[in-house]
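Service request form, structural biology core

Requester: graduate student, group of Dr. S.
Request type: structure prediction, single chain
Budget code: on file
Notes: please return the result as structure tokens.

Sequence provided:
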Amino acid sequence: MVNLMTEGSKIAIVIGTKAELIKCMPIMLELQKQKKDYWFVHTGQHSLGKACEDFGIKKPDFILSKEPNRSTKFWSKINRISFLWFLMMNLKIRRLLKKIKPGYVIYHGDTMSTAAAAIASSSFLSPGKNWKSVHLEAGLRSGSSFEPFPEEISRKISDRFSDILLAVSDLSENNLRKGNYKGRIIKIGNTVVDSSLIAYKKARKKKRKKMKKYALINIHRHENLNSKKRMGKIVEILKSIKIQAIWPIHANTANFIEKYGLTGEVKNMTNIKRMSLTDYGDFIYLLANCKYLVTDGGSIQEESLVFKKPCIILRKKTERQEGLSTGINFLTGLNIRKTKEIINQIENNKIKVKNFQNPYGKPGLSKKITELLK
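Core staff response, request fulfilled:
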């Protein structure tokens, strides 16, 4: 195992969103298990208090902006307010790192908080720094700057400014090497494997009624929400679901469905049970026990591979291209006819889940990462 950190160095983990917390959670739990102290730096992009409590993670040591009352500050929108917040966050993170002087700064994924942490911890804003900056989940690419936006740009920024790039797969490692990034590239796998299994293990302890076969729906990407045409296509696709379905619906999604006059059509789909968003553990339990998934999300594509569930992706492009070769992830391009046919084949058991090796690795990645950073 390669040693990247001198003995006694302390890690700063910068997190802004719930998705980042979910995927950093196994590393934080592993550090706590080993009684290794770390700094938890929260940018305030999402409200994380309940999630920390659910996961058994210590509260943030530093909160750099006021947490929102609702789930997120920006709904992934890029506007004047979010841009000013992003610039302010660069300066706040830089100032904090100079004060606490960590050995390593870790940030995850592709959000505004991720890009801010990458820039602030780099030599560009912190010349003469003594720490190394680490991008967790590096190298994912959709090949389109606007699918998804702004995440694809955030990923490139974060990879460009990082000292160490922890790639999630062979494909992501190749993306980084082709991009001539200066940081040290190490293929490590994706911590979502650990996150989802930890959450599922906890969720199974709750007493639940056994459910018949069902589909699980998850729609929230703003590339879809901002287009009446796309949302109309998605509603038309959902009508083809014949079995029972569960749809934990985002407030933003519900708002756009109402805005586009689609509420009546959604309510007429009586086999689809709409419900409030659940916590991560309950959602993973639903995912692990469903027949198939219909989603436009990102991480859910990875989680579908952990539990070997067919996943219909309502997008034009995906940065999780590794899953497409497994035979259970289907990128539809929002083609209604094609998507309806896939749903029909899954529901009639014409698509079999074959044995495959998860491209994102095996359980235990988080321990591997903490060993790497000793």
